[in-house]
Amino acid sequence: MSATETQVPLNFEEWTPAQCAALLEQLQSGSELQFYAADHASPSDLGAYVRVQRQGPALWLRKAANHGWSTDWTRASLEALRDELYRNRHTQHSGVQISAARVQAIEGEK
User: Fold this and answer.
1) Contacts (Cβ under 8 Å, ≥6 apart) of 31
2) Position with higher pLDDT, 3 vs 21
């Protein structure tokens, strides 16, 4: 893990929906939250690796990917992201990752 990455936290299974929302609300522009969504529909391996970037006060972009496929960057509400993160909290064995965004997300791009 580089100096620009943060693992948050190891006891993620115990988090509440409110804590998941707070994590998303604290995400800074230029940063990216990454987590595994075991319940995401996938044409290949189970689940998806989800990337989230905050674009403004109430605007988040989300992208999901797994072996051989990815979605476009699409808008996602705080509530939808919170719910997805909370539903999948049990699959974050090492926590979730916050890092500098590798590429600035643009809605509709791969």
Assistant:
1) 53, 54, 98, 99, 100, 101
2) 21
The position carrying tokens 């940063």 is: 31
Are the CB atoms for 69 and 2 separated by under 8 Å? Answer: no
End-to-end CA distance of the chain: 25
Three-state secondary structure readout of the chain:
CCCCEEEECCCHHHCCHHHHHHHHHCCCCCEEEEEEECCCCCCCCCCEEEEEEEEECCEEEEEEEECCEECCCEEECHHHHHHHHHHCHHHCECEEEEEECCCCCCCCCC
Q: pLDDT by residue (tens digit) across 5-54?
A: 665 655 777 889 999 999 999 999 889 999 999 999 888 888 999 999 99
Phi/psi at 28 (5° precision): -90, 155
Taking the model in full, what pTM does it have?
Answer: 0.85
Task: Identify which of 109, 105, 108, 3 has the alpha carbon closest to the alpha carbon of residue 54.
Answer: 105
Q: Residue 39 carries which side chain, given as an amino acid letter?
A: D
